[in-house]
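Justification of resources, computational component.

The compute hours requested in this renewal are based largely on the per-chain cost of generating structure records like the one below. Each record pairs the submitted sequence with a full structure-token output. That output is archived, and it is also reused by downstream analysis tasks.
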Amino acid sequence: MDEQIEKSFEAATKILFGKSLHSMQNYGKWLEANHRPAKKHKSALSNQMVYDPPLVFYAPASKKAVKQGEALELGKLSLSHEEAKALNLSNFAQKTAKMRHHTSDAITGTNTMMEECSLYIDSSYCFQVYSTVESKFCGYSFWPRNSEYMYGVDCVFNSKFCLKCYNSVNLTRCFEVSHSANSSDCYFCHNLDACSECMFCTNAKSLRYAIFNHEVGKEQYLRVKKMVLAEIAQKLEKDKKLDINIFNIGCGRKK
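The structure output for this chain reads:
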């Protein structure tokens, strides 16, 4: 993995938890949980790996998927005028077999150091990121757009310094936040708008220094936040994962 990608992960975790986590790939399985990972398989023409974005569009054709360079070569193939005139519903599949391939490596714009990625536009320094537009310093994510320093996210736009956030827009320094907008410094929150410095809040708007939807004041909030983040960082360093997330935190423990 490129050194810049690793350093960006360390920087993001330092900002979120007060302590850097190292070796992003050790956290890969945890970062992939609850977001849609790509379907990884070998090219139909070679041993090169293909990364199909997790969209229904790609599933039926995955067996015929190839890398972009291979697709460009296949694009030079054609049928003669006589062969094209002879096509019908019964012979079409057989006559066009050599050309019936697709690629998910749709790459446009200026891109730098995109490792094990596919379907990206004007992006840089990403690892295992799929369907990304104008984003940089991202890892193990699906569809970060106009964003930076994003890890383990799914459909998060116009955001920065976020880990494991989902279906949100305009987030800053958030961890385990889903279906939210215009919020910053939030942890384990769902359906927020215009909130900042919140933990364990849901279905709320314009809260600040709040825990469980109750504004507790700056001093009390920061005291609790410090303890929570210290425990999170300790568990992540030790186990390389957290068992709780925004989708299960309210479910209680199994007996």
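The chain has two domains: 1-71+101-162, 165-249. Residues 165-249 form one domain.
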